[in-house]
Design goal:
single chain; alpha/beta; Inosine-uridine Nucleoside N-ribohydrolase, Chain A; binds alpha-D-ribofuranose; binds calcium ion
Length: 314
């Protein structure tokens, strides 16, 4: 039975691959896409979700726009990684799929409350929409099957030495998500940095020869250029599809139980996901933390999804 998910995202190059993997994976039923401000402003991340769905031929999944700013702090974006549009690289045509009138927070609440308790939330951007949904309708915490998020790190951050981008954009939202009594899995940088898109991967995608594959190659080329410039990384880590892969094929993303808490007050450490892997703090584990990526199989899943969606007339 495919796992029903809502993908909450801030497209973003790796968010785009997460959308493709979610829709192209037979193990996933992509119930909805919700957008949030993060990599770029909300208008841009929402337009980008529509662009990706247009090129991927995803016409039957609702796209709902969410929060344009974090709960408390001013918005920080990531043009240095994703460009001014948030999805630089390809030449995009006019999107052919609409944005829903329903706010993302209302869509999340309605979908979860109408469900049989089988909805998994997969946030791969700042957690603003998820935190607001919890506050507006606390009952979703007991009804959501699982939260599998891309964010945080058991080690260093990327936006600051301590904090990963999705968490530091809205630490107050992240603190609410990690402290709520629902099953949370953290797919952090320590895992996603194992998912670098090297030249052999790019060539496998290019060889598919479809318009979607061509767009993905252009996205990866741009992503590679900014990651090389920003972090000296030879191969860009595709963070967000790792969270989707954890839901689709849990065996590809190994996890351990740990206590995780989000720092919101530190002058230098705000946004850090303090991860206690050895029980030093005497706190019971409140999350599963991703540790090992089965990289070859992950890329097989990713390439298969691109191939599946890229079939003309699919
Ligand atoms: O730190 C990486 C995360 O921040 C990814 O989700 C990327 O898309 C950005 O949102
Ligand atoms: Ca993202």
């Amino acid at each position: 039975m495919p796992r029903k998910i809502i993908l909450d995202c801030d497209p973003g190059h790796d968010d785009a691959l997460a959308i493709v993997l979610a829709q192209g994976s037979p193990e996933i039923d992509l119930v909805g896409i919700t957008t949030v401000a993060g990599n770029q402003t909300l208008d841009k991340t929402t337009l980008n979700a529509r662009r990706v769905c247009t090129v991927a031929g995803i016409t039957d999944v609702p796209i709902c726009a969410g929060c344009p700013a974090p709960l408390v702090r001013p918005l920080v974006t990531a043009a240095h990684i994703h460009g001014e549009s948030g999805l630089d690289g390809p030449q995009w045509g006019e999107p052919q799929v609409p944005v829903s009138d329903e706010h993302a927070v209302d869509f999340i609440i309605r979908t979860v409350m109408e469900s049989d308790g089988d909805i998994t939330l997969v946030p791969v951007g700042p957690l603003t929409n998820i935190a607001l949904a919890m506050r507006k309708e606390p009952r979703i915490v007991a009804k959501v099957r699982e939260v599998v998020l891309m964010g945080g790190s058991t080690a260093r951050g990327n936006h600051t030495p301590a904090a990963e981008f999705n968490i530091i954009v809205d630490p107050e939202a992240a603190a609410a998500v990690f402290s709520a009594p629902w099953p949370v899995t953290m797919v952090g940088l320590n895992l996603t940095h194992q998912a670098g898109a090297g030249p052999e991967v790019v060539e496998r995608v290019r060889a598919l020869g479809t318009p979607l594959a061509g767009t993905v190659v252009e996205l990866l080329h741009f992503f590679a250029s900014t990651y090389k410039a920003a972090e000296g990384r030879p191969h860009p880590p595709v963070h967000d599809p790792c969270a989707v892969a954890r839901v689709a094929r849990p065996e590809l993303v190994e996890v351990v139980d740990a206590f995780v808490v989000v720092e919101t007050k530190g002058e230098w450490t705000s946004g850090m996901t303090v991860t206690d892997l050895t029980g030093r703090l005497g706190k019971a584990p409140n999350a599963k933390v991703a540790t090992v990526l089965h990289r070859e199989e992950f890329w097989d899943e990713m390439v298969d999804a691109i191939a599946a969606l890229g079939q003309p007339g699919r």
